[in-house]
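We both want to read discrete structure tokens more fluently, so let's practise on a single case. Once you have written the record down, we can walk along the chain together.
***
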Amino acid sequence: MIIAGEASGDLHGSSLALALRQLAPELELFGIGGDRMQQAGVELLYHASQMAHMGFAEVLRHLPALQRAFSRTLHEAVTRRPHLVVLIDYPGFNLRFAQVAKRHGLKVLYYIVPQLWAWRKGRLSKMARSVDAAAVIFPFEEPLFASAGIPTTFVGHPLLDVLRVMGDRQSFFARHGLDPHHPLVALLPGSRVQEVRSLLPVMLQAVDKLRRSLPGLQAVVAKADTVADEVYAPLLAAHRHTATVRGDTHACLKCADAAVVASGTATLEAACLGTPFVLGYKVSWLSFQLMRRMIRIPYIGLVNIVADKQVVRELVQGDFAPEPLAAELKMLLQDQTRREAMRRESRLVAEKLGTPGAARRTAELALRLMETDGGR
């Protein structure tokens, strides 16, 4: 059983499913994921698009539906009794599922562990009672989770397996009707509906402001697979000169001169591809107040967390507004010294993510755990 409740989890879950099938073609795979996991042969109980909600207040509004999904998924697990439950990120759902699954005698592997080091280190001991092993994707996580008594393996970051860009800047611009002689800003407003509705209007307004001093500036919105066109349409209606891409995000980032990226895995993608960018994050007032009281580290961006210093500017909540965002983008587009410094620091971050092959190493770990399961 594999449970991944968000777009990035679906991506990494599909890579894991393919690796498992290569090593053990007879495996039956089921759980929660998206289109990619389904295409990789995972029978879906729920689609990730039904599960991805951002922020405390947002989750509360969808709590009844999430509780129904939890109950049904648990029923399937208890009835079908998989040899292993693999949980991918998605801590609000998966940490609780790990506890209940263990009480029912199921073996649990957590792949892409919750960022407890950022907000709730006290829950490490609780997690240790709920999982049999952890496959972690940042090197600093291995000693931390191991110290809590969790058998932990650093497998490298799965992003390194999927970062592939076909073609060059010229071909990307031609594919999407863009002019290669003018600068391009990539806008990545996230993979959840709430993120897109909250962040994209600010990004578009910032670009409009910037065009007053840079009249040839182009912008392209990278649409997430988990967000329907109907969500983007009203937000883009007044911005007809802004292009959109779907399924071409890595090339979009690689070919852009600068980017605005929602906090999350996409910030690591931008860093690995060497694109100067600004990080944006904004949730409801209640969610932010609760989050601010819980977070115990100085940064929210993964690039800055891995670097342990500010590599990219973080515009959070009230600071994520058209004027400061436009000013930061203009600096990134025009200040060559700053662009090169960010690229150097980003390369160092990328080097800390390990080597390609995370899915394969995690699949091998999963099969070893299943072999010790008594052949159920």
